[in-house]
Inverse folding.
């Protein structure tokens, strides 16, 4: 385990407020998703179709990208292409500068986090107002998202209340969620409506119409994207779907998997800038299509990961995530999907812990609405880490010695005899402290083995 | 599939049962004999290779797959008292050897006749007869057995035939216990926190016995329960079905 990961995990496990916060949100999400999927008998067939839609698009990405660009351009939008995160940020900053933007209203986008857009805007001296309530909370706190659906999941409502009291102009008086939301509204509404540019991500890009789809529950996307003069969309190229019909199918899976709701409160399709005769809408619409490693993932055995529709179900149901929360993962994306993505985005050497810190229980794959074989992909990273010599020397030599002996049954039996004797020196029943096994006995008692192995007793005729 | 009334089956006892808890192996022999199987214990067996597989050492895992396929392919069936080891043979050997023309079909053939023991006994219609245990027990579904092999109803059906045994549901019975093979010692703090919640859920059932089908998970949960001062005792399900739950539970001197 790397020291940095180790330290983040220890800090997370020691934080009881974090545990309460994660459990409240993920626990509720798990329960509601269970009810929603339970009431949907054809969920299995629906997820197979969803996976097939995404696989088809990923396999034919070039053609769909070209189709999308043509349709979006025809609707009056300008399409930009970014190979890297830096390129994407430069394009966005340049559009803001050309528009003379002093402030931008941003609607929550994990792609924006992935490419470091908040930082890039700050570095360019452009004011940024986060309009999603949870993003607003972490902007006030100077933190990063800890979950892809609930960026401020790591905070309890009590902690948020304190933050609002400290930072809002007219904070809430009554300690209720409604009053806190009103406090945020008072703080944000003016800034939202006064922004020069609105920036969003996209849940789906619809190839045959050039439309961009966003889903939110707060209506903040609509409020922050329609009034400003310019709307910029940043989206990963894997967000493409062939048509509206496909988007609607995936929407059904997305909402239920994320929150258990049949649909989010707001599902909006943006089709170009304001047209002649329209009452409102931005004068310009720019769509920045971002690769940032996605083509390489497709070609390097991670194509199935590009199915991901960012619902968060895998992390909500992950026993590791539920203990350590999102920040401990150290990347933009936490949980099982993050443990597959982060090594691809930020490098394996610094992130080899992520695919390893997983019990391989398979729950994430079971709940994934697009059937991504997450344990298989995580094992793939473990194999790459092993091949590249990134695994610790203690593990390599220990496993090597075990494998060497286990290929020689008679030697192996002798080794087992020796190990049994050694363990029984520490005790005959429950062992509270076992040398070289502090990882186990630090938190659990260890059951002493029987005096003789099964194979030895069986060979002696015992049945 | 149909299963011959009498079969010559190989018991793959697993490295953990071999070294830590031979009673599980003897219980398996007893139950299989009662079910009319002629059981052979291949002498060359050591481990299925799962530690290498899950550590990313694919070459070693593949080597173990070849060795075990060669060792096991002559039997009519291979029965394993562990969902995760059976899952390794059944789901992962074919995957490991898929690109090896000499081995792919052999791995598929062995995989197709490899069974987790509770699923095997249940598929044969076997039920424990004359086995009584006056106890309240709860059951944890180990992840690999549940999700790789679909083992869920089988252990409950089998345990339902034990006289006097009251099986109570465990909240979060399909939630991982935090064992995860080498995970539990590689990331002990996380593993420990997960195990704590599992132990609390077990305690909340009021059951005196904890049962499961995988010794690794059982050692983890029982070790955590004991550390918490709980008096819940843990057995492998096959021990109960073989009428051997009158002996020492996991952690009690064997």
């Amino acid at each position: 385990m790397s020291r940095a990961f180790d330290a983040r995990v220890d800090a997370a496990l020691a934080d009881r407020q974090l545990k309460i916060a994660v459990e409240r949100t993920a626990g509720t999400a798990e329960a509601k998703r269970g009810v929603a999927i339970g009431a949907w008998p054809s969920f299995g067939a629906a997820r197979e179709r969803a996976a097939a839609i995404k696989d088809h698009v990923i396999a034919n990405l070039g053609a769909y990208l070209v189709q999308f660009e043509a349709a979006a351009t025809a609707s009056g939008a300008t399409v930009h292409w970014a190979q890297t995160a830096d390129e994407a940020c430069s394009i966005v900053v340049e559009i803001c500068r050309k528009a003379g933007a002093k402030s931008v209203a941003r609607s929550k986008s994990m792609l924006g986090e992935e490419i470091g857009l908040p930082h890039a805007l700050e570095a360019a001296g452009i004011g940024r107002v986060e309009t999603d309530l949870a993003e607003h909370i972490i902007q006030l706190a100077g933190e990063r998202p800890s979950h892809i659906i609930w960026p401020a999941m790591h905070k309890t409502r009590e902690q948020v209340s304190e933050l609002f009291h400290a930072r809002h102009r007219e904070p809430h008086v009554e300690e209720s969620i409604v009053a806190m939301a009103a406090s945020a509204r008072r703080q944000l509404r003016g800034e939202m409506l006064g922004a020069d540019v609105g920036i969003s991500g996209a849940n789906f890009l619809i190839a045959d119409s050039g439309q961009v789809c966003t889903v939110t529950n707060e209506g903040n996307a609509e409020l922050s994207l329609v009034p400003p003069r310019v709307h910029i969309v940043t989206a990963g190229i894997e967000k493409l779907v062939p048509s509206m019909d496909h988007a609607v199918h995936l929407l059904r899976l997305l909402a239920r998997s994320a929150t258990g709701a049949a649909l989010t409160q707001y599902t909006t399709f943006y089709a170009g800038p304001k047209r002649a005769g329209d009452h409102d809408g931005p004068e310009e619409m720019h769509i920045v299509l971002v690769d940032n490693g996605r083509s390489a993932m497709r070609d390097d055995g991670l194509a199935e990961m590009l199915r991901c529709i960012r619902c968060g179900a895998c992390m909500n149901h992950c026993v590791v995530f539920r203990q350590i929360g999102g920040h401990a993962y150290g990347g933009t994306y936490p949980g099982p999907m993050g443990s597959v993505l982060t090594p691809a985005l930020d490098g394996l050497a610094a992130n080899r812990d992520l695919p390893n810190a997983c019990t391989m229980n398979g729950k994430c794959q079971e709940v994934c609405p697009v059937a991504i074989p997450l344990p298989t992909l995580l094992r793939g990273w473990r194999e790459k880490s092993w091949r590249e010599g990134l695994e610790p020397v203690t593990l390599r030599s220990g496993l090597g010695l075990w494998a060497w002996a286990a290929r020689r049954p008679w030697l192996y039996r002798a080794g087992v005899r020796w190990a049994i004797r050694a363990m029984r020196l520490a005790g005959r029943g429950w062992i509270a402290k076992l040398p070289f096994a502090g990882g186990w006995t630090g938190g659990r008692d260890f059951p002493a083995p029987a005096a003789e192995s099964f194979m030895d007793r069986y060979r002696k005729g015992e049945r | 599939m149909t299963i011959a009334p009498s079969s010559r089956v190989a018991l793959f006892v697993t490295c953990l049962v071999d070294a830590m808890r031979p009673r599980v192996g003897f219980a398996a022999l007893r139950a299989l004999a009662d079910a009319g199987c002629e059981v052979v214990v291949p002498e060359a067996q050591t481990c299925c290779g799962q530690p290498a597989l899950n550590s990313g050492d694919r070459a070693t895992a593949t080597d173990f797959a070849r060795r075990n396929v060669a060792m096991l392919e002559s039997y009519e069936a291979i029965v394993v008292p562990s969902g995760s080891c059976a899952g390794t043979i059944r789901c992962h050997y074919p995957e490991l050897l898929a690109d090896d023309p000499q081995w792919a079909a052999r791995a598929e053939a062995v995989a197709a006749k490899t069974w987790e023991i509770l699923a095997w006994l249940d598929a044969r219609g076997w039920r424990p007869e004359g086995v009584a245990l006056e106890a309240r027990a709860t059951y944890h579904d180990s992840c690999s057995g549940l999700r790789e092999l679909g083992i869920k109803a089988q252990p409950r059906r089998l345990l339902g035939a034990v006289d006097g045994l009251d099986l109570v549901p465990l909240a979060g019975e399909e939630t991982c216990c935090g064992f995860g093979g080498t995970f539990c010692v590689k990331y002990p703090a996380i593993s420990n926190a997960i195990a704590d919640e599992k132990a609390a859920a077990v305690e909340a059932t009021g059951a005196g016995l904890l049962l499961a089908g995988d010794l690794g998970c059982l050692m983890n949960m029982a070790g955590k329960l004991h550390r918490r001062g709980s008096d819940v005792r843990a057995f492998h399900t096959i021990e109960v079905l073989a009428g051997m739950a009158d002996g020492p539970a996991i952690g009690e001197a064997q």
